[in-house]
Amino acid sequence: MLFQYTKIDGLWIVDPERFHDARGSFGRTFCSEEFGALGLSTHFVQHSLSVSLLRHTLRGLHFQVPPHQEAKLVSCVRGVIWDVAVDLRPGSPTYLEWVGTTLSADNGRQFYIPEGFAHGFQSLVDDVAVSYVISAPYVPNSSSGIRYDDAAIGIDWPARPSVMSDKDMAWPAWRGLVDLAVEEAEV
Ligand SMILES: Cc1cn([C@H]2C[C@H](O)[C@@H](COP(=O)(O)OP(=O)(O)O[C@H]3O[C@@H](C)C(=O)[C@@H](O)[C@H]3O)O2)c(=O)[nH]c1=O
């Protein structure tokens, strides 16, 4: 497996090392020794698959609040997506910066997104399947999100979204969420 740093500490692009022969190819998608050696999570408790039917469908930006934060290892097993992670770690030198990368069934690339990040993606073709391996259980009350087009983050999405969930359309901007948390703490 080929691990590439991104400009954000803790966020990794993981490319496969594929061995080809007459039958096709073989390559690892996870290796606890290699992940552990880099300080990445090796304990995953959920594996999920999402299918998006139409090109330019957008999902995100999602995260779970403490103590239910999760690391995610994301790959696209059918089609192509533009996958994005946003650094929401207070005090991080790259706070609110984002990284996007193209994941496809062909390139076999995975995005390792640690705790403290929001995640989202946009399908670039019809009928994509996205696989997630996640380090923490799904806790609906701890699931949160921010607007995909939050100006303070400024993600350069490939296209206007064609389909989004009502929930994703209704997320506030990040600043709004932080302000709300402070107000709640003061009550
Ligand atoms: C995420 C999730 C959803 N669900 C249920 C809740 C709901 O009824 C249905 C669809 O959920 P959502 O609308 O939240 O699905 P979706 O918008 O695809 O959510 C996903 O988006 C991407 C960007 C991520 O990063 C993922 O971790 C996850 O948050 O599936 C689970 O049972 N377990 C889960 O882990």
Automatic annotation (TrEMBL):
CDD domains: cupin_RmlC
Family annotation (InterPro entries): RmlC-like, RmlC-like_jellyroll, RmlC_Cupin_sf
Site (Participates in a stacking interaction with the thymidine ring of dTDP-4-oxo-6-deoxyglucose): 138
Keyword Isomerase set for record: yes
E.C. no: 5.1.3.13
Subunit structure and binding partners: Homodimer.
UniProt record similarity statement: Belongs to the dTDP-4-dehydrorhamnose 3,5-epimerase family.
Keyword Isomerase in record: yes
GO cellular component: cytosol
GO biological process: dTDP-rhamnose biosynthetic process; polysaccharide biosynthetic process
Top-level EC class as recorded in UniProt: isomerase
Pathway linked to the protein: Carbohydrate biosynthesis; dTDP-L-rhamnose biosynthesis
PANTHER family cross-referenced by the UniProt entry: DTDP-6-DEOXY-D-GLUCOSE-3,5 EPIMERASE (PTHR21047), THYMIDINE DIPHOSPHO-4-KETO-RHAMNOSE 3,5-EPIMERASE (PTHR21047:SF2)
Function: Catalyzes the epimerization of the C3' and C5'positions of dTDP-6-deoxy-D-xylo-4-hexulose, forming dTDP-6-deoxy-L-lyxo-4-hexulose.
Active site: 62 (proton acceptor), 132 (proton donor)
One Pfam family per UniProt: dTDP_sugar_isom
GO molecular function, a single term: dTDP-4-dehydrorhamnose 3,5-epimerase activity
Catalyzed reaction equations: dTDP-4-dehydro-6-deoxy-alpha-D-glucose = dTDP-4-dehydro-beta-L-rhamnose
Keyword list, A-Z: Isomerase
Protein name (database record): dTDP-4-dehydrorhamnose 3,5-epimerase
